[in-house]
Specification:
Elements lengths: L3 E5 L5 E6 L8 H10 L12 E4 L2 E8 L2 E7 L5 H19 L4 H6 L1 H11 E2 L2 E2 L4 H4 L20 H4 L28 E14 L5 E14 L7 E5 L3 E3 L18 E3 L1 E4 L3 E2 L3 H4 L1 E4 L5 E9 L7 E11 L2 E10 L6 E10 L4 E8 L6 E6 L4 E10 L3 E10 L7 H4 L3 E8 L8 E6 L9 E15 L2
Parallel strand pairs: 8-26, 11-12
Antiparallel strand pairs: 1-2, 1-5, 3-4, 4-5, 6-7, 8-9, 9-16, 10-15, 10-25, 13-16, 14-15, 17-18, 18-23, 19-22, 19-24, 20-23, 21-22, 24-26
């Protein structure tokens, strides 16, 4: 049961606010933002997704820089509310096309109409884009995505090539196209978030992939779709038609620990030929979620070394090597490393001719940060940092520093090797074929190297 829902900008401006039950005091949005902005509880750098202030439970998720927040005074499942916030963000994006502060302000009437149908007196009714079309009648004022900064999932694929349209997917699924003609398109995105922990010697201690196949359809008439995956795909231990055989590439079958499917997916032929059949509903939705803990090749190798260089000095050497093909480029890489608490100053030395790299020493939390705009596959980059201490170290520096953590995004790459072999549309569209876009992306969920 939700008491309030509101959306805040990065500055704390209240863009959307709805009070469903009148149980929470006025000014809750200001209380929430002040608490999040200056969070100092529990030694955490930022506020957790759920916290309590004066008997009010605050739940929040951050989506493309916007804060989606719900409040309640009752004891309620945190995972339920956080999932609800994510679904509200997804439905809003389906209707507006582009989800940002500008599109919300221009379409606030439509957004409030959506909220009134999604939640009634604090109780959730539906979060289905397709079902909401029967109750929501306002047309969205579409914001020109070409003039906006690239935020959100679509920007992951915006590489300046015709193969990966970044702007085409930022359209409303309900808006009428100018001129009355609709561009027939369907997008399938395989998004994987990987978690890897390396030992100090570079061996993999733990590895896991959380993946999802997302679909967004702009096809008229909701035709049936057939989606074929790897024929050597196996689910669980030993199940599947080709488990234990080598794939045509010689790298073995793709083995998933478990998976689940959207309610619209028909699995009649899945066990036989790994083909999914479905009639896609309006809006973006996950066709399949999966998890993999089998050993896979990590996209990056990270090594870190710290050693004394005098009584009050030490040197850190960080190396990042891209293990993928040279045709692939990783974006927005950030490497972080906690330093000894008595570190007072850090001087950095980058490779000669390095471009698009920045370094910083966060003195407040004694953390080194190294940002790289991009890394091309097969290349290795090195950072040297000279540390100055306020007192002499009497312990082991490797125990006082680290571990090294890393975040990144790699378009058109997936670590699990799960692939869409073909995307078939049952309905004929006259003389022209619909545009089919299948895209891959890998992101770091938790990428850690111990010292």
């Amino acid at each position: 049961m939700i008491s309030q829902f509101f959306i805040l900008s990065q500055r704390g401006d209240n863009i959307v606010f709805r009070d469903y039950r009148g149980e929470v005091q006025k000014g809750s949005a200001e209380i929430f933002f002040r608490k999040v902005k200056f969070w100092e509880d529990g030694g955490l750098e930022e506020a957790p997704p759920v916290f309590n202030v004066d008997g009010v439970n605050y739940f929040h998720v951050k989506v493309v820089g916007l804060l989606f927040v719900a409040t309640t005074r009752v004891n309620i499942s945190p995972s339920f509310v956080l999932e609800l916030l994510q679904r509200i963000a997804r439905v809003t994006k389906d209707y507006l096309g582009v989800l940002n502060e500008d599109s919300l302000r221009k379409n606030f009437v439509l957004v409030y109409e959506l909220l009134d149908e999604v939640i009634d007196f604090g109780y959730v009714q539906t979060t289905s884009t397709e079902l909401l079309k029967s109750y929501v009648f306002n047309e969205p004022l579409v914001v020109d995505a070409a003039r906006l900064p690239a935020l959100g999932p679509a920007s992951i694929f915006a590489q300046g090539t015709k193969r990966m349209p970044g702007i085409a997917v930022t359209k409303s699924v309900v808006a009428t196209e100018p001129g009355g003609r609709k561009r027939e398109e369907i997008f399938v995105d395989i998004i994987e978030k990987i978690s890897i922990t390396f030992s100090s010697s570079g061996y993999i201690l733990t590895s896991e992939i959380d993946g999802t196949i997302q679909m967004k359809s702009y096809l008229t008439g909701n035709p049936e779709i057939r989606l074929a995956l790897n024929e050597d795909l196996a689910i669980g231990s030993g199940q599947g038609p080709v488990y234990g055989h080598r794939s045509s590439s010689g790298s073995g079958p793709v083995i998933l620990d478990d998976c689940n499917f959207h309610e619209s997916v028909c699995l009649d032929s899945f066990d036989m030929d790994r083909t999914l059949s479905l009639i896609p509903p309006d809006g973006e939705f996950p066709v399949m979620n999966y998890r993999m803990t089998q050993e896979f090749r990590p996209p990056f190798r990270v090594t870190a070394l710290i050693e004394e260089a005098g009584s009050l000095k030490a040197e850190v050497i960080l190396k990042v090597r891209a293990e993928f093909a040279s045709s692939i480029t990783a974006n927005t890489i950030k490497v972080q490393m906690p330093l000894p608490q008595f570190t007072t100053r850090v001087s950095f030395e980058l490779e000669p001719g390095s471009v698009g790299q920045t370094t910083d020493f966060k003195e407040a939390n004694k953390k080194l940060e190294w940002s790289l705009k991009k890394i091309v596959g097969g290349y290795e980059h090195t950072l040297r940092a000279k540390l100055t201490f306020s007192q002499e170290s009497h312990g082991n520096l490797t125990k006082e520093a680290g571990p090294v953590s890393m975040t990144f995004t790699i378009p058109m790459y997936n670590a699990s090797r799960l692939q869409v072999k073909y995307l078939q549309i049952a309905k004929k569209f006259g003389t022209h074929e619909p545009h089919r876009w299948v895209r891959y992306v890998t992101q770091a969920n938790s990428y850690v190297a111990r010292m």
